[in-house]
Amino acid sequence: MSEVELGLAIIATINAAIRFSVPITLGALSGLLSERSGIVNIGIEGMLLMSAFTGFMANVFLSRPDVPDALQAGPVRLTLALVVALITGGLMSLLHGVLSIQYKVDQIISGTVLNILAVGLTGYFYQREAPTLGKLPNMISNPFTIADSWELKLADNFKFYLPYDIGRILFDKDVITYLSLILVVVVGWALYRTTWGLRTRSLGENPRAADTLGINVYRMQYTNLFLGGMLAGLGGAFLTLAAVGLFEQGMTTGRGFIALAVMIFGNWRPSGALKGALLFGFALALQNQLQLFGINFPHQLVGMLPYILTIVVLAGFVGRVQPPAAAGKAYEHE
To answer: Does residue 82 lie within any of the structural domains?
Structure first.
């Protein structure tokens, strides 16, 4: 493999890792808001899948010839499809809230219900190769060219060209990718620098004390569940409106469960969740990129990497991190 080919393979791997990390990051933020509010949410997988489906089907519907041209215009059509995906995630999260908060259903069972419901509904209404007018375009084009770059020699047989290669990493991304990075900062700031964040964290640690101070525990839990559901909806929308542009049955392939592992890995902090998502994104990227490096592994073994990493993370970190004390415990208002 030549120096140029090796450099291209590395850049492709980094870009693939970023692309794979986006829905995981958003799913982890969704779980973080839920568990910081005292509600365990393993239904993120179902939220991602259902939101991906409804966002795609909204795009399909608005792409029909009989739809007015004003609605078929790219920005309008894709914005409406994105809104549908966000609302889907929020509503599914509210369903989880009704089951686990109002009816005191075990939160693990409630989340499992969401996952099964999403698989069943998307499988039943699935339309193979439904046509659309396109997906979200890249938001910012790479302003650099080879002519603008200079050589950075890292080893005798390995060179990078900066800032061209860095431009290929920072630019040529869709709006949801950039938005996911912004949301990590915003959620982290809000969680530790605002009154809402203080109240949210108090729900996860001691809802009884929060109730005593006049905080409406149920209302805040529903609110945070809805916000978390919309974050998961954004992750689902990324899959069908930005990354692929199509919907396939079971296309989330466990990303919701990986998001939960990332949340634990990040110790229920947004910045830690982003780091974990990038790690898992890199593992997912290796499935497709190892051959670019001339490394031939059995594809079954390579496909197992993200899930092996999930098991290792859960086994290695679940006893070393401290979850919110009240997470998973139904609160009874006196």
So the answer is: yes
Look at the pTM and tell me if it is higher than 0.90: yes
What's the pLDDT at 69? 87
Question: Is residue 57 within 8 Å of 130, Cβ to Cβ?
Answer: yes
Domain count, the chain: 1
The tens digit of pLDDT for each residue in 212-260 reads 999 999 999 999 999 999 999 999 999 999 988 899 999 998 899 999 9
Give the domain range for residue 280. Answer: 21-137+195-317
Q: Determine the distance from the C-alpha atom of residue 24 to the mean position of all C-alpha atoms in its chain, rounded to a whole number.
A: 4
CA angle 212, 213, 217 (to 5 degrees): 75
Residue 17 sits at φ, ψ, to 5 deg, of -65, -40
Beta bridge partners of 153: 159
**Got the DSSP string for 218-282?**
HHHHHHHHHHHHHHHHHHHHHIIIIISSS--TTTTTTHHHHHHHHHHHTTT-HHHHHHHHHHHHH
Give the residue ranges of the chain where pLDDT is below 70. 1-6, 150-160, 288, 290-300, 317-319, 334
Q: Write out 29-85 in H/E/C secondary structure.
A: HHHHHHHHCCCCCCCHHHHHHHHHHHHHHHHHHHCCCCCCHHHHCHHHHHHHHHHHH
In the beta sheet, which residues pair with residue 159?
153
